[in-house]
Amino acid sequence: MKLQVAIDLLTTEAALELAGKVAEYVDIIELGTPLIKAEGLSVITAVKDAHPDKIVFADLKTMDAGELEADIAFKAGADLVTVLGAADDSTIAGAVKAAQAHTKGVVVDLIGIEDKVTRAKEVRALGAKFVEMHAGLDEQAKPGFDLNGLLRAGAEARVPFSVAGGVKLATIADVQKAGADVAVAGGAIYGAADPAVAAKELRAAIV
User: pTM for this one?
Assistant: First the structure.
């Protein structure tokens, strides 16, 4: 199972600083939607230039103009981009077309999708490299949220998937047990007193 750090900071400088601390322990460096909105495509290029050996994941959360948005992110240096599962199939197919042209990949984010299992199978058939079983920050803040719903959906869908939303040292073993291909940790790393130690501990917990 790969480890992905989600960088939900707001400046290129802060993103590069964090990436530099944790890169040796992670496989994928994700540039969060707020970061890309704040800094633009240049942050993708900056992180890829600094870490050419890492998979750079641009969390665009595209909802329309799939081919166009994916194309500009790939040209900026992204290896993976996200399209929302709620988007029209043609939007996802367009992003996949751009990915094929660049030999890159599309991840379909199932945030807000009620029937994640069915949609996961549908978007995999459209060419998604994997799907993201994702609970956003707002959903995680609700009383009673737990990770198990995402894990069950991932295990049941039987397609390559990542898990994002509540992944931390106490839950990463459950993520791996569910069969996830990628564990996405955000606040558990960037919110830690020592992000490098946090990333190292998460890496060590993956067997």
Answer: 0.97
